[in-house]
Amino acid sequence: MAEMQYRKLGPTDLTVSVLGYGASPLGNEFREIDAHEGERTVHMAVDLGVNFFDTSPYYGRTLSEERLGRFMGHRRKRIVLATKCGRYGLDRFDFSAERVRASIDESLRRLRTDYVDLFQMHDVEFVDREQVLHEALPVARELQRAGKCRYVGITGLPLGILRDIAERAPVDSILSYARYNLMADDLDSDLRPSCQELGIGLINASPLHLGILTERGAPSWHLASADVRRAGERVAGLCRRRGFNVSQVALKHCYDYPHTASVLVGMSQCRHLERNLQAFRLEIPPGLLEEIRETVGDAHNQLWPSGLPENQDRP
Ligand code: NAD
After folding, report:
1. How far apart are CA 148 and CA 308, in angstroms?
2. What CATH number did the domain enclosing 102 receive?
3. What's the confidence (pLDDT) of residue 314?
4. 21 is a catalytic site residue
5. Which range marks the domain in which residue 22 is found?
6. Which H or E run includes 203?
């Protein structure tokens, strides 16, 4: 089995595994999972050196946090634990001071712990950014002083709003998803420079483009266009013809990018976890990434709208 690698998360004193555990599948976000297998995957992940775990009250409308809290048990002390606040349903957002304060207490109860390492404002593009800046983030800092969280971060899909918030209020980390993998790379041009300048830890989530870069393909609810899905299928086919598994190539490409501390992958099956760890040892043959880039074609950096119109990235 390949050795886990670790990196420091920006200016924090958190050292996180480069392969991070995304807990949204524990909330049945992709499909109904086998909970026993999910539990075994959490245990195995910790035993294999995965120490960074990310969840949210939104995933499975509290099911992910509740299961993770139950599954972690005594392993909690070996885990850098991240959760979120502000998003509670597909269209349910609340970044008010009152809700943020209550949210962390509810999360701590479900997670069976008395602090989280990272408390993140979940999908900030869905609300007025001024509320995140002047209400949610100051309250999160108050919770940090009270010892309920060690660090504070923001998450979302459009890059402009993440950059803008980070430039206007101190945040310790940004979790960006689907912006650096085999289908996209604008995180590198549009977010990484600001993070480096401001000294902010960067987390790369959805390296499989929320399931597109798998043999099984995208889940039915995926918001990507038909063009992007078809491009993903072409990439999977190309990798297969070259004798590789598309998910492993996608992950190795993300692990090799040195500017994100952790690559968060959704995992609820032990065999996926094993494969994702083995990907550290994969040698991507010369030319394959260029061929993949050609195969992706115009679907490259083609994301989908997320959040309020004024919070979308300008083309
Ligand atoms: P992902 O790109 O990691 O894809 C996950 C899917 O791929 C799941 O269906 C999983 O079963 C499958 N999978 C994993 N390894 C595989 C393998 N080796 N072979 C085949 N299939 C495999 O998408 P994700 O789960 O959305 O992202 C990862 C994590 O990042 C989330 O769980 C969450 O913790 C975090 N995230 C946060 C936000 C946010 O804060 N806004 C958004 C997206 C993701």
Report:
1. 30
2. 3.20.20.100
3. 80
4. no
5. 6-211+247-286
6. strand 201-205
